């Protein structure tokens, strides 16, 4: 209790300073989602961002909703990246033997 007789005000969700894990999740997920459109190059970044976001949800509950946003963006980026990797593989795989053994 404070001197006024009221309990101290709790931080509103999302207003507390981010932990390193939350900041890493947001950064990795954003980079992964952006680079996922480059034939899936951002897939590992998006996966790492989604994992960090999931861990940050448990370890840093005061930073919500940002770990959840990072996790969802990472999952969407990973799905887009995976689809583009499959498409690129299907397009380029038949051409590889001709390029190697020409």
Please provide a written account of the structure.
The chain is mainly α. The chain has one domain. The protein contains 4 helices and no strands. It has helices at residues 20-35, 43-59, 66-92, 96-101. It is rod-shaped and about 85 Å long.
Structural class, judged by helices and strands?
mainly alpha
- What characterizes the major β-sheet? none
Number of helices: 4
Number of domains: 1
Strand content: under 5%
Helix and strand run: HHHH
Mean pLDDT: 86
Q: Which consecutive residue ranges, at least 5 long each, have pLDDT under 50?
A: none
Specify the overall morphology: rod-shaped
What percent of residues adopt helix (DSSP H or I)?
A: 55-70%
Number of strands: 0
Query: Alpha-carbon distance between the termini?
Result: 80 Å
Q: Rg from C-alpha positions?
A: 20 Å
List its traits.
102 residues, mainly alpha, 4 helices, 65% helix
Which helices and strands occur, and which strands form pairs?
Blueprint: H1 20-35, H2 43-59, H3 66-92, H4 96-101
Helix pairs in contact: 1-2, 1-3, 2-3
TL;DR of this structure?
The chain has 102 residues and is mainly α.
